[in-house]
Amino acid sequence: MRDLRDREVYECVIRFSEDVLVADGIEAERAATLGLKVAELLRKDWGGQKMYFSKAEELELQVRDLDIYNRFHGRREEASALAKEFKLSEERIRQIVQMVTARERARRQGGLFP
User: Fold this and answer.
1) How far apart are CA 69 and CA 99, in angstroms?
2) Is 65 found in the same domain as 31?
3) Is residue 62 domain-shared with residue 102, that is, in the same domain?
4) Is the model's pTM score more than 0.85?
């Protein structure tokens, strides 16, 4: 590895891979071997290129919003409980439900013209 940052990223990929595999029930030694293989595949395929990982905060918000949508059934008590849990106002909970409802409806129905 040419510089410390490259080595740090490489080791991080190995460690993250190991952690996921062990959490999924793979024995630690096998997970370490597979983690190294993952890092090597990334190095061979992406080596020499600069990579950028977005924080994907928008994706996290979409997951949160879908969770709220799935758990809200129109009752005031639900809106209140969800507002407290997600540290949002009841009005914001209703806005999220309305927004996701529209998005889901559009997704299921598609456009009128292909």
Assistant:
1) 9
2) no
3) yes
4) no
Q: Is 51 among the domain residues?
A: no
Residue identified by tokens 């029930």 is 25
Rounded distance between C-alpha atoms, residue 8 and residue 101, angstroms: 43
Residue at 33: amino acid letter: T
What are the respective helix, strand and coil percentages of the chain, to the nearest 5? 75, 0, 25
Is 88:61 a contact under the CB 8 Å cutoff?
Answer: no
The number of distinct structural domains making up the chain is 2
- Alpha carbon 23 to chain centroid distance? 17
Q: Is the dihedral of CA 110, 54, 91, 69 positive or negative?
A: positive
Place of tokens 């891979």: 17
Say how far apart CA 32 and CA 70 lie, in whole Å: 38
Instruction: Read off the pLDDT of residues 18-49 as tens digits, 9 standing for 90 and up.
Output: 999 999 999 999 999 999 999 999 989 988 88
